Amino acid sequence: MMAFNSQRGVDYFIAATGTNPNKISTSSISGDNVAQYRNLVIWLNNQPKAPFQFFLPKSALIKTSNGVTFIKYEKTWLALTPINLQHILGT
């Protein structure tokens, strides 16, 4: 996902699975499957132990409310609603 940023031109949100949740990985485990319909994105991976990795700029503000994680960019909000996950973004 990309969002407007007046200083850098663009901010980003990248979701992937990797081999080590504490380290940036360049590959995904067992193939991530992504689908989009309007403002909804579904991200699937058939490996239940595959660690999720989220990459976003340090300027993004993160808040969790009622199980939904909100990420605030300069002009854009991103809402993450986990399905069948214990926790997300360390919250």
Structure description:
The protein has strands at 2-5, 9-12, 14-17, 33-37, 40-44, 52-55, 61-65, 68-72, 77-80. The protein has 91 residues and is mainly β. The protein has a domain at 2-58. The chain has a three-stranded antiparallel beta sheet with strand order 7-8-9, with no helix packed on it. It has a two-stranded antiparallel sheet with strand order 1-2. A two-stranded antiparallel sheet has the order 3-6. The protein is globular, with a radius of gyration of 14 Å. The chain starts with a strand and ends in an 11-residue tail after the last strand.
Distance between the termini: 21 Å
Order of the strands making up the biggest sheet: 7-8-9
Helix content: under 10%
Q: Kindly report the average pLDDT value.
A: 78
> Which structural class should the secondary elements be placed in?
mainly beta
What's the number of extended β-strand segments?
Answer: 9
Order of helices and strands: EEEEEEEEE
Q: Supply Rg.
A: 14 Å
Write a brief structural summary:
The protein is built from no helices and 9 strands. The protein has 91 residues and is an all-beta fold.
